[in-house]
């Protein structure tokens, strides 16, 4: 019994030696300093920083919340991103498994002619470990760390895809809502201009209006028809874009309608103000860039380990006999142990080139990480600047609409009393329509800016 335990003891000792003696040549990782200011303009102290709400809390409208939920369930790009995560996760598991020996159950037979013309047979059966690399210098460990970092980077990429999807669905839905409002304005304007054209033509036929008045009325009516066709086309395109994001046709009950002022202000929650720049670490694209930097750093350790001996072990434990029927009988048991060490002497600079390439890859990853932070900082700063100015722009645009509405009322009054020409009325109609369109576009811009700020700060999941 003691003789049988000896091979198992040697194999266990070899396994323990390989696991305990491994070292790592990976450089110590230090996160690069963020190449941006530490705070945004007007930010509060870090102790007062609120937490960004989840997207389901950020979206206040129930219809829009259901549309986003459908998109998260059915969007094909998001499915691809999640499948990529599983693929990279499987690659990490493969790399992790390389650190452990692969044990096979093998049965072999060999017949060979001897010098005397006799045929000799040898049969073996047992457990086999072929060319297991003992990771003395951490090559496999570094490769495993790199694979783990790539797996985590893929997870962050999927989160970034989800964040982008949520923001795109919200923005497209809001654009579709603005399309509905613009269509409503245009239809009302077209009806008014068609009525004006009929009255002008009637007055022209009776000699009460000039040909210039008639042509001006015809021009405005044709302009309204052209604008209506353009906006109908834009609405159809936005609806198609929303269906593509959602991954299916959006139910009519979930589509936006012409908003009221109260509904417009309650679609989205406010994004907390005064957020410091270190909250940019919440962004999945920045975390993805950092994981890729960690992977590049680990690859340097694997490239350094290639300069040292690569030690592998081939061993077997089982039964051997000259006859097949003699396998597994007493006295037929045995083991083999065949360690091997290979030290690269001449490889025409292959290992050095691999090390240089891994170092260059790390420098590239550092630059990409820093750029991700700079891009994120700019996006947040732009969104904050938009929030600071779009509110004032909307107030000014509302005042313009009120002024143009009063101007149109006075022009119509002057025209009915014979004080002003019909051209003054038509010009007032055109100005009011343009002001209403601009107000709708500015309101949409403020909503889209709110979505952009939420996305830039790392919200969305």
UniProtKB/TrEMBL annotation:
Subcellular location: Cell membrane
Signal peptide bounds: 1-22
Keywords associated with the record: Lipoprotein, Membrane, Palmitate, Signal, Transmembrane, Transmembrane beta strand
Pfam families: OEP
Topology within the bilayer: Lipid-anchor
Gene3D superfamilies reported in the protein's UniProt record: Outer membrane efflux proteins (OEP)
InterPro entries: MdtP/NodT-like, OMP_efflux
Similarity section: Belongs to the outer membrane factor (OMF) (TC 1.B.17) family.
PANTHER family, alphabetized: CATION EFFLUX SYSTEM PROTEIN CUSC, OUTER MEMBRANE CATION EFFLUX PROTEIN
NCBIfam families: outer_NodT
Name recorded for this polypeptide: Efflux transporter outer membrane subunit
């Amino acid at each position: 019994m003691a003789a049988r335990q000896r091979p198992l003891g040697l194999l266990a000792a070899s396994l323990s030696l390989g696991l305990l003696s491994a070292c790592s040549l990976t450089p110590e990782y230090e996160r690069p300093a963020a190449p941006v200011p530490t705070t945004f303009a007007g930010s509060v102290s870090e102790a007062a920083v609120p937490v960004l709400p989840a997207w389901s809390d950020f979206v206040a409208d129930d219809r829009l919340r259901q549309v986003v939920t459908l998109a998260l369930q059915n969007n094909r790009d998001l499915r691809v991103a999640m499948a990529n995560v599983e693929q990279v996760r499987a690659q990490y598991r493969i790399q992790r498994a390389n650190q452990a020996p692969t044990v096979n159950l093998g049965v072999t037979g060999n017949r060979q002619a001897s010098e005397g013309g006799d045929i000799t047979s040898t049969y073996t059966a047992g457990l086999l470990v072929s060319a297991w690399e003992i990771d003395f210098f951490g090559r496999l460990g570094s490769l495993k760390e790199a694979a783990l970092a790539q797996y985590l980077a893929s997870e962050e990429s999927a989160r970034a895809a989800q964040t982008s999807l949520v923001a795109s669905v919200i923005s497209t839905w809001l654009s579709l809502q603005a399309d509905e409002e613009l269509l409503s304005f245009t239809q009302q304007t077209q009806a008014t201009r068609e009525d004006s054209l009929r009255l002008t033509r009637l007055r022209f036929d009776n000699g009460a209006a000039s040909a210039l008045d008639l042509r001006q009325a015809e021009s405005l009516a044709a302009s309204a028809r052209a604008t209506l066709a353009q906006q109908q086309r834009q609405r159809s395109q936005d609806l198609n874009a929303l269906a593509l994001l959602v991954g299916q046709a959006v139910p009519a009950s979930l589509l936006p309608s012409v908003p009221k002022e109260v509904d417009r202000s309650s679609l989205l929650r406010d994004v907390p103000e005064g957020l410091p720049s270190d909250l940019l670490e919440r962004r999945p694209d920045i975390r993805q860039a950092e994981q890729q930097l960690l992977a590049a750093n680990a690859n340097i350790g694997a490239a350094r380990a290639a300069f040292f001996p690569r030690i592998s072990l081939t061993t077997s434990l089982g039964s051997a006999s000259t006859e097949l029927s003699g396998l597994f009988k007493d006295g037929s048991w045995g083991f083999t142990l065949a360690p091997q060490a290979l030290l690269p002497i001449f490889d025409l600079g292959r290992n050095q080139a691999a090390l240089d390439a891994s170092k260059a890859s790390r420098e590239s990853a550092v630059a990409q990480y820093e750029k991700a932070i700079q891009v994120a900082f700019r996006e947040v700063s732009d969104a904050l600047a938009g929030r600071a100015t779009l509110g004032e722009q909307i107030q000014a645009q509302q005042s313009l609409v009120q002024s143009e509405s009063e101007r149109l009322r006075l022009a119509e009054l002057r025209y009915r009393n014979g004080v002003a020409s019909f051209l003054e009325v038509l010009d007032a109609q055109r100005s009011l329509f343009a002001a209403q369109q601009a107000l709708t576009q500015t309101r949409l811009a403020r909503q889209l800016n709110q979505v952009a700020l939420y996305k830039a700060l790392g919200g969305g999941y």
